[in-house]
What we know:
Elements: H1 15-18, H2 35-39, H3 47-53, H4 83-101, E1 106-110, H5 112-121, E2 124-125, H6 128-136, E3 146-147, H7 149-157, E4 161-165, H8 180-186, E5 191-192, H9 194-204, H10 211-229, H11 248-258, E6 262-263, H12 264-276, E7 318-323, H13 331-339, E8 349-353, H14 366-379
Helix pairs in contact: 4-5, 9-11, 10-11
Amino acid sequence: xxxxxxxxxxxxxxxxxxxxxxxxxxxxxxxxxxxxxxxxxxxxxxxxxxxxxxxxxxxxxxxxxxxxxxxxxxxxxxxxxxxxxxxxxxxxxxxxxxxxxxxxxxxxxxxxxxxxxxxxxxxxxxxxxxxxxxxxxxxxxxxxxxxxxxxxxxxxxxxxxxxxxxxxxxxxxxxxxxxxxxxxxxxxxxxxxxxxxxxxxxxxxxxxxxxxxxxxxxxxxxxxxxxxxxxxxxxxxxxxxxxxxxxxxxxxxxxxxxxxxxxxxxxxxxxxxxxxxxxxxxxxxxxxxxxxxxxxxxxxxxxxxxxxxxxxxxxxxxxxxxxxxxxxxxxxxxxxxxxxxxxxxxxxxxxxxxxxxxxxxxxxxxxxxxxxxxxxxxxxxx
Length: 382
C-alpha cells in the first residue's frame, strides 16, 4: 500500500458517489460534531486527520517505488527486497522529518510499513558502496545486510517511540507452496506496477464505477466465511481482509487510491520467512547467491542476516496493535518474532483488536473506535 491508506477522503472524481456514505450511529465520541467529518464522512476513517485533530503533526512517507502523482517515489527498476526500505528509506525519512521539525518523531506503519521501522530500530544497514556495486553488476544484486549495535542505540534515541499496526513478520504458510516453480517465479526481478495500473484503470480513466470494489468485497467475504466454517482449511491462510468490517466507500478508496507497486522479491522473502520459519534477509542477497532458486533451511554460518537474532537491539517504547484473524500476520508470530524479543520498555503495549483482519485493521469500523483512540492514549503518556 502507499500512504493513501492512512488518508481516506472524498476526491473530486468520487464526490458524487462518496456523498452517499453514512456514518455509524454509534460513532466514536471524538468525531461527534466534527465539522470536517460532517462535510466529508470519509474523514472519520482518516488516521492522519485524527492525529492532526489531537494536536500532532503527522508526516506520511512512501518507500521507494510506490506512490502516485506528487507523492510518487522513484525506485530501482530491477529488484528490491524488504531489506531495502528498512535499511535505506526509513533512515532518510527520519532524518528529513527531524531536520525540518527539529524534533524526534514517533515512527510506525501498517504491515510492511511497520516491519521497515523495526528493521531501522535494530540497527540493520546496507553499505552504500556495496549497494552501488551490486546495482552495476550483471546480474544485479542486493548486498548482504549488516548490523551495528552502536547504530541501533543511535536510532532508538532518534525517535520517541514505535507504532506497529499488525507489523509483518514470518507469515503462516502451507508447506505445499514449497515447490521449485513457485520459487522460480518469485525470484524474478519484476515489479508489479499496481500503482500505475489502478491509477490508469480507476482514476485517470475518469470512472467512478465501484464494480471492482464489489467483486473484491464478494471475494474476500467469501474467503472469510469459508475460514470461519472450515477453520482447518486453506482458507485460513487467506483470511486477511474482513471487507464486511469496512465501509463500502472506504473500501473503494482503499483499492482505488492506496493499492501500490510491489516487487516479487519482497513476496519471495516473505515466502522464505513463512516456509523456513526464519526472518532472514533476502536469500538472493550477495553476489554468491544470485543463482539461488529454492532457499535452504537456516544453518549456522550460512552467511545470512537474521532479523529475529537482533530484535533485542530495539529499545524504544512500542505500541503494537494486532488483528484477530491470522491470515498473513498471526498475533502468535508477532509475539514469537518481535514483541517477546525486543528489549522491554515500561511504556510497551500490545493489544489484539477484536473482529479485525490484517488489511482492515487501520481502515475498518474498529479503526476510529478502538485503533485511533488507543494510539492517542499511548501517545499522551509522552
